[in-house]
């Protein structure tokens, strides 16, 4: 960048002053409501920020069932952005965020119509590199300078800050090392015309590789017709004149000795609405409430960032009893946490965990197909879209895994219960995902996988996605190719991004000797003889019953859920010690692609079976902007006869 160039950051500031930033910063129909906006009315001063002490002191994390209808999901889709904007309106926060080069947002719904939110980011990215590209090992020492976290409690009825705290700046460091073969790929990426035209000679700048490889155990590069594990991705972060830009590359690793670059792109932002641009669209209030309201107590901060920008981790006992449930849990390597449960002394499931989260990009229109037919039309592991991740959930890399147990007292007509809360930044660095939490987050993900148990025998798996992954890269591709989507008088855009959270459960409905399985199609009950795969529709139910007792487990289905019921097999991936796991496959290409592949005619009545819950995440249908919104989907299992 020459002295005469206008930086992207300066362009944003100039555009904001002139009022021309609406398209860049998201001042669109998304998030509009009839409520007065703290952003739209700069003359409306925040007053009466003090609220009753009892309301503050008794506010706690809310359960899904404490909200009627879809209000919990809507809070995460809409209120998170409003809460962030409310923080940014405070002049102390506004001035701070304007200097950031990256950001990370966290949000949780509290009771007493409060919500807790945090934002954090650094003012600069610095890198010291040694050994690239010709050394025996390349080493990159990375520092996110002056990272600070802002915590706030927001009244979601009035958009007022009722508690506010800003931490002291810290320099956060981490290191990345690379082998010669990885450095060779990196050198090839830096020498592409795409990179040289967009950035120039990157070796003259500070940069580092975030993650890369010629082949990945969880990558499907449909753009190159590659099977599971034959493709890989690479991400390089560059300090370009004070702005953090990202180089993203797709790699054909089907020949490990001769990897080939399939595609290379340069991306300016990790998320659609980065905090450092969003803040430029917001007129700050006249006075800060920083000294007028209390700090945010640690126990009311978001779990992801409560510990000075890092995770709050208060692990429950490995086995415990609560609300008539007996639970045991343990980390499951790449499949989240494995939970075993009984209720009122009778078994419910021997093992439950999350073997895979599917994250697909640039898919063809779904056209009423189930996800197996849509994702894998040839019934093999070649993905129909450009890129698919069979994401793993590790407590070591991109962890941390289990965060804690949240206890819920009985409220109104909702019985008491508790939540096991886990969190994963797949592909981020280390147990604490230190790069992601420092605002350098293009590529990795943000998955919240939780399980709520209630005293009335209800279990709810909950999947929450915040992103970003590679969404801004594919958003750019969609914009560039928009003229190609109109044919024959119609207009069919690709599905930019789609998720499936897969939960696998070794069900034991009051017995460990095998279950009776029934299916209700909305009109009649049937008893399937063989394994099956079904798309959910409102009013349909899958039931697991004790053939010699009264215990039943019902799984109500809807159009956001698919179910696979397969006989338990030690050679097929599943949730416990009696099944295979995601790390058991050693040969590329990997054979696993979809649980429906296990439906091959085996009998199921009176047998031990695995229930796969496929919780659908159609994030393409509404603007669930990564970072500023959370997409939430849930399932429900109800017990009777226990």
Give a concise summary.
The chain is 13% helix and 36% strand. By secondary structure, it is mainly β.
Low-confidence stretches: 1-47
DSSP strand content: 35-45%
Radius of gyration: 25 Å
Secondary structural class: mainly beta
N- to C-terminal distance = 69 Å
Overall strand count: 32
Number of helical elements: 10
Give average pLDDT, whole number.
91
Shape: globular
| Main β sheet profile | 10 strands, antiparallel
- Helix fraction, binned, reads 10-25%
InterPro entries: TAT_signal
Protein topology:
Blueprint: H1 8-18, H2 22-25, H3 53-58, H4 71-89, H5 91-97, E1 104-109, E2 114-121, E3 124-130, E4 138-155, E5 160-166, E6 170-178, H6 180-190, H7 193-198, E7 206-212, E8 219-220, E9 231-240, E10 243-252, E11 260-267, H8 275-278, E12 319-322, E13 325-331, E14 337-343, E15 346-363, H9 371-375, E16 387-391, E17 400-408, E18 417-424, E19 447-454, E20 458-465, H10 471-480, E21 486-487, E22 490-491, E23 495-507, E24 516-520, E25 525-526, E26 532-535, E27 541-545, E28 552-556, E29 561-567, E30 609-617, E31 631-634, E32 637-640
Antiparallel strand pairs: 1-2, 2-4, 3-4, 4-5, 4-6, 7-9, 8-16, 9-10, 10-11, 12-13, 13-14, 14-15, 15-16, 15-23, 17-18, 18-19, 19-20, 20-31, 20-32, 21-22, 23-30, 24-25, 24-27, 26-29, 27-28, 28-32, 29-30
Describe the structure.
- By secondary structure, this protein is mainly beta.
- Among the domains are: 53-125 and 147-167 and 274-299, no CATH class; 176-267.
- It is built from 10 helices and 32 strands.
- The strands form 5 sheets. Strands 8, 12, 13, 14, 15, 16, 23, 26, 29 and 30 form a 10-stranded antiparallel sheet that branches. Strands 17, 18, 19, 20, 24, 25, 27, 28, 31 and 32 form a 10-stranded antiparallel sheet that branches.
- Strand 3 (124-130) and strand 4 form a beta hairpin.
- The longest helix has 19 residues, at 71-89.
- It is globular, with a radius of gyration of 25 Å.
- The termini are far apart.
- Residues 1-47 have low confidence and may be disordered.
- InterPro entries: TAT_signal.
